From TrEMBL:
Pfam families given in the database record: HATPase_c (PF02518), HisKA (PF00512)
Main location: membrane
GO molecular function: ATP binding; phosphorelay sensor kinase activity
Keyword Transmembrane included in the entry's annotation: yes
Name of the protein: histidine kinase
Membrane-topology annotation of the record: Multi-pass membrane protein
Record's GO cellular component terms: plasma membrane
Organism expressing this protein natively: Candidatus Enterocloster faecavium
Length: 764
């Protein structure tokens, strides 16, 4: 039986596909009818317009389009390769784009200048790339129009000696030497070495000749890009380069240019306005929709019962609007226009496809488009037909989102009003208990009105109350077991347990339990991190102390060897001195950071001019800064910025941070040091690009013995940032460190002292 139903359903689906295919095929076969209707409408429309000099104007435009396309083809022939319009008409533009792309942001500015003093980059690489895209788009338009008007606009292109360079007719010499027929015009144009165009001769009837000559004179110094670009184009350094040192001869009939939109083929507007397009689509689509409503009534076909046919009302309305917009918007009409004009076949043959194959592909493309259009219509009609099969009320309940949402809201409200599921233990219980007592009193009072019969009702009431209380008790017991199980798992050390069920009365306890679990987990993670930090600290201290100590022992043993020369002895002593000083600096840094962390540092607070202090540090580190390959940019105010600080400790902060930049910044990049005041605070910002990828967080970078260079290839103890942070915070300041990709930024903040207060403090 099931097999029979499946076979019947397959027959129904095949029938639907057959109907949609037949409707699509009929529409494609109706293209000539729609084209004829569009042509008749177009002719009537054109006859109602004023003709005046429209033909001459249209001819002049298409002549210029043909000239530029012919010149591009000539340049491609000379180059032996395909050239884009921008390569032909804007020579040097690609080189200018490459220069801008490589030169932007690489200006060399002295260290005392700020990065705001950058040059004006209004004509940047993006401007020239947009110019290139515009030129290529215009060139494609020229190519399209030249192909369209090639049949009615024959030409020949001659060099200065009269040699034919190109033509769109066979035997151009014989063609252009023939006597002109009535209404024809022969036009000769010359482009000199500068690209200026001159009308050499115009042959034809007097009226047409004069108007045509005057129109073509307007193109003497014509630049087609000026009309499409803003006034900045003329100052961009890019000049349009058109035909040069060449003659063009055109011979045409002005009668062929009667229609501005094209000589023989209708356009998209004609198909839409003529009524032929809408008439065919409405007729075939209406018949197909009617069949889609009728066929589901034939039970053996099994149409309208599958999932695909259960489309809800709201999305169906949305799809219907989209379908109407697609059809009325002219997308299928545009496909009809391209097909009847032969544009699709022309593009396919240009791509190297055989004409016969191109015709088949064009037919299949049109058939597929209409199958999509009519298939969508058939699907929506079958889905809408469910209102007849189910009835209006059932259709609204099952196939509309609005009614289904209302039913969901109803169930939700009933569930929320159930007093056995939700109780707020934080609220006053008097109101809830009072409601329950009053409700029970009303029920008992109503039962008592029944006299002796009320005894039976009271028994039923008691049984119902027993069942409800027992059900509620079991629910609460189950939820209690879930909560107790979660607590037991936490007690056994499983902090990843998560309770997802709704616990009703115990819901507040579940929330508190989740907070306790998160707190325990956070504490455990913090302890693990602390232990790991201690281990890493011991490892790093051992490593950084052992390295210079091992070197000292090694070179002492070398000094003990007999027979070493004085030169070797001096070399070994120099190395010993370096390693000893390295060990001394490391121990001093460790001592400093230990004192700072314990808060046992004695600060000598006094008014300190931070501008002068930074300049002093810059001067002391000038050799190191100059040799690191980083371009430092300093933005320091001229006036003093005074803060109550320990000058020695603050000097150490800036020294550590600047040395850090010289070690870890990428060579040939910029580093920025700025000082400014904001709302009573002095803000000092240091920024640089890291040479190596920073894989640790900013918080970990400020820990002791943590270095951004994990391979530890650079000299350093890993204490610089930790010391700077400790000294900053000891002086009531803040130090913020951030890493964005390879951008490393440190921001220091201290309170600013007024100069009067600083003077008083100095006098005391």
């Amino acid at each position: 039986m099931d097999t029979k139903l499946k076979n019947s359903h397959r027959v129904g689906v095949c029938l639907c596909l057959l109907l949609v295919t037949a409707a699509s095929l009929l529409t494609v076969l109706a293209y000539p009818y729609m084209q004829e209707k569009a042509l008749r409408w177009h002719e009537g429309y054109e006859q109602s317009m004023e003709e005046s000099s429209k033909a001459e104007y249209s001819a002049s435009i298409q002549i210029m389009n043909s000239i530029y396309q012919a010149w591009r083809e000539q340049k491609q022939k000379e180059a032996g390769q395909i050239l884009t319009p921008s390569q032909v008409f804007l020579p040097g533009l690609e080189e200018k784009i490459r220069q801008k792309q490589s030169g932007q942001g690489s200006s060399s500015v002295s260290g005392d200048e700020t990065w705001e003093d950058s040059e004006n980059l209004s004509y940047d690489a993006y401007y020239y790339e947009d110019l290139q895209a515009t030129m290529d788009s215009v060139g494609q338009e020229w190519q399209s129009f030249a192909r369209e008007y090639s049949r009615i606009l024959p030409y020949e292109m001659l060099d200065r000696q009269g040699k034919v360079l190109g033509s769109n007719v066979e035997n151009p010499s014989a063609f252009f030497s023939r006597k002109l027929e009535n209404g024809q015009i022969r036009l000769s144009l010359y482009f000199d070495e500068s690209g200026s165009m001159e009308v050499k001769s115009v042959d034809g009837s007097d009226a047409n000749r004069d108007r045509m000559g005057n129109l073509m004179t307007n193109y003497q110094f014509y630049d087609p890009l000026e009309l499409r670009l803003s006034g900045d184009y003329r100052y961009s350094g890019v000049v349009f380069s058109g035909p040069k040192d060449v003659n063009f001869v055109y011979q045409f009939d002005l009668e062929d240019f009667r229609y501005l939109d094209g000589p023989t083929t209708p356009m998209l507007h004609d198909y839409v306005s003529s009524g032929g397009y809408y008439g065919v689509v409405a007729t075939i689509g209406g018949v197909l929709a009617l069949l889609a409503l009728i066929l589901p009534a034939v039970r053996p076909l099994g149409l309208g019962e599958g999932r695909c046919s259960r489309l809800s009302f709201e999305p169906m309305c949305f799809l219907a609007l989209c379908w109407t917009a697609l059809v009325c918007g002219g997308v299928p009409a545009g496909m009809i226009e391209l097909t009847t004009r032969g544009e699709i076949i022309r593009e396919l043959t240009d791509a190297g496809i055989l004409p016969a194959v191109a015709e088949i592909l064009e037919f299949l493309a049109n058939l597929a488009m209409w199958m999509f259009v009519y298939g969508s219509l058939f699907w929506m009609a079958v889905s809408a037909g469910a209102v007849f099969r189910l009835g209006l009320w059932r259709y609204l309940k099952e196939r509309t989102w609005i009614l289904r949402f209302c039913r969901f809201i109803k169930r939700w409200v009933v569930r929320c009003l159930n007093p056995f599921n939700e109780v707020d233990w934080h609220s006053n219980s008097t109101k809830a208990i009072g409601k329950a007592v009053i409700a029970n009193f009303i029920i008992l009072a109503l039962i008592s009105l029944l006299w002796f019969a009320g005894i039976g009702v009271l028994i039923i009431y008691s049984l119902v109350l027993f069942v409800l209380i027992q059900r509620y008790w079991k629910q609460m017991q189950k939820k209690y077991d879930v909560l107790l199980n979660a607590i037991n798992q936490m007690a056994e050390g499983n902090l990843d347990v998560d309770v997802t069920e709704n616990l009703g009365l115990f819901e507040p306890l579940k929330e508190q339990l989740a907070r306790v679990r998160q707190g325990f987990k956070k504490a455990v993670d913090q302890e693990v991190k602390s232990e790991r930090t201690k281990t890493e600290l011991i490892t790093n201290v051992s490593h950084d102390l052992k390295t210079p100590l091992t070197a000292i022992i090694t070179y002492v043993n070398l000094l003990k060897q007999p027979g070493i020369t004085e030169e070797e002895r001096d070399s070994y002593i120099d190395v010993l001195e370096q390693k000893s000083m390295r060990l001394k600096v490391l121990i001093e840094d460790l001592f400093e950071v230990s004192k700072a962390s314990s808060g046992s540092v004695n600060l000598n607070l006094e008014p300190v001019d931070l501008v002068s202090l930074i300049k002093e540090v810059r001067l002391e580190l000038s050799e190191r800064i100059a040799g690191c390959g980083v371009d430092f940019r300093w933005k320091l105010p001229e006036e003093k910025v005074i803060a109550n600080l320990d000058g020695q400790r603050t000097y150490r902060i800036f020294e550590n941070l600047l040395v850090n930049i010289t070690k870890y910044a990428m060579p040939n990049t910029r580093a920025y040091v700025t000082l400014e005041t904001q709302d009573g605070w002095v803000v000092i910002t240091l920024m640089n690009i890291s040479a190596a990828e920073v894989t640790v967080s900013p918080q970990e970078l400020m820990e002791r013995f943590v270095r951004g260079d994990e391979s530890r290839n650079t000299e350093g103890s890993g204490l610089g940032l930790a010391i700077a942070k400790s000294f900053t915070e000891l002086q009531d300041g803040t130090m913020e460190l951030s890493v964005e990709g390879d951008l490393f930024r440190v921001v220091l903040r201290w309170r600013v002292m007024e100069e009067s207060a600083a003077e008083e403090l100095k006098e005391d």
